[in-house]
Write a structure and sequence with these properties.
The protein is mainly beta. The chain has three helices and twelve strands. The chain is globular and about 40 Å long. Keywords: Oxidoreductase.
Length: 158
Amino acid sequence: MDDRLFRNAMGKFATGVTVITTKLGEDVHGMTANAFMSVSLDPKLVLVSVGNKATMKPYITNAGKFAISILNEEQKDLSAYFAGQINETREIDFYWFQEMPTIKEALVNIVCDLHDAVEAGDHTLFLGKVTDIVIRDGEPLAFYEGKYRELEDSKRVK
């Protein structure tokens, strides 16, 4: 099967959009990811998938901790910036949470200690042990078939 067929099939799975961030020394790094999931309640574990060639991989590995910000529907610009789709350097005004950089006004900010890392094909699966969470109200930034989408409330007719 060719790569495009596989990518198109995976694009049929609607996801939210996250920005993964970490701090190593004084350097802050971030990347957009929609490959995120909860794994376990006891202990509280989450997973992010990072390409083995991504700049972010050694930063998470060496920092030993990372943060996840689940973006709201008004944060497309930040998603594009951290995905490398905007070719300019910006000063990001991070929300510092438990000494970790996170995205301000995101629906959720999660701080994790690195629990494990598993190489899987051309990606590394980083398991994070959740140490703290902040939740805010709002609507999610959704991604489907390679595009941002808006969610609609469907009213059931009785």
